[in-house]
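User: Can you help me understand a structure? I only have the sequence.
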Amino acid sequence: MANRWEQIVKCALDLGESLYVAGGEVSRVESTVSRICYAYGAKKVDILGITSCLIVTVQTDDDRVVTQTRRVPGQDYDMHKLSQLNNLSRCVCGNYVKLEEFRARLDKIDEKADVSLFKLAVAWALVSGFFCIFFGGNIVEALYSALLGALLRVIYSYLLSLSLNNYYAILICSFAGGLLADIPNSLGIPLNAAAVSMGNIMPFVPGLAFTNSIRDMFSGETITGLLRSVESIILCLGIAFGFALCTTSSEVRSDVNMWVTIFSALGGTLGITLWFNLDYKHILAGTLGGAFAWAVAIILQNFGVMEFLSYIIASAAITIVAEFLARVYKCPVTVFLVPGIVPMVPGGLLYRTLRKAVSGDWPGFSSFGIRTILISFGIAAGVIIVTAVADVITKRLDERGLTKRFVLKRDR
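Assistant: Let's start by predicting it. Here is the structure, written out as tokens:
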């Protein structure tokens, strides 16, 4: 019996680790691991999850105590895998699944091939090209930025294959991106190096991670939120330092036409959906969600709504859409929420904030930094408000037996 419970906890932790790596929130991981252990008969489950560690203690049905700790690697968004893992956990919790079958199905999901380098290069090309337009670049500059984005993805993957530390790999790619962005001007070809640079470095800027760190702290996951925010700042400092070594200008246009930014947000989000490996049946909804969220934010600002409030409303709107789509497609909300908020996250502002710090422009650092934090708070607040309301509604429906979701006895 003791060995059986060790295997149950191991399987639950394996699924929880894979879920986190694929892009699941810490709260989702903790809930999933707990529910699986309860589904197999545990009396009590205590779990602590942070960005690099999972600790689980289970009081078994025969009053034994089993504790396991797992070191968790960093996240690498894979929404297709996230959906499969979520479906497996729902199946285990909703119906009795033999432990051997659980292990076999989990291994089958983990054995599937990673996203191909070609698909990643195409995705980064789309993200880089369209975000170059987003920051004021023209068609020629966007095409050049797209080419550099694909090349940087290949370089980045090669550096990681050499087991190089992620921070060093990003620093090298940042330096290479800035250097390559300036080459046309060195050859007498007039291109906006700043717009090109902002486009081809956007995939590296941890704007989503920084925004999620604020969201984690709002949700009560203070340790996780603080760790993520520190990691984001360190990464952005590395990016800013790499560009500061070779880029001649960091200024980008702020007068880009509203409809151009909405169009570029649409194309950039398409690249994000490919990069994060959404199921093909989810790509259209995910892409439209990103454009919709940005359109709400920018249109509200054009009608005079203050920036902070516009981001709260836009993030709340896309969260409502994501909650609805998650129930239609029977997959995690994260699948639609993450691509939806990407165009809004202040990745460019975060980079420019720390670029000002690297260059010693402290007034600029203060100005950009305050905007970055306010926008991140606004996005996180909108998501948290809608999520909290959705959780309350779902819990009430569960208590009345109106849903098929597995409910813990202690939640009734």
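Now, to help you interpret it: The chain has 16 helices and three strands. The longest helix spans residues 362-399. Let me know which part you'd like to focus on.
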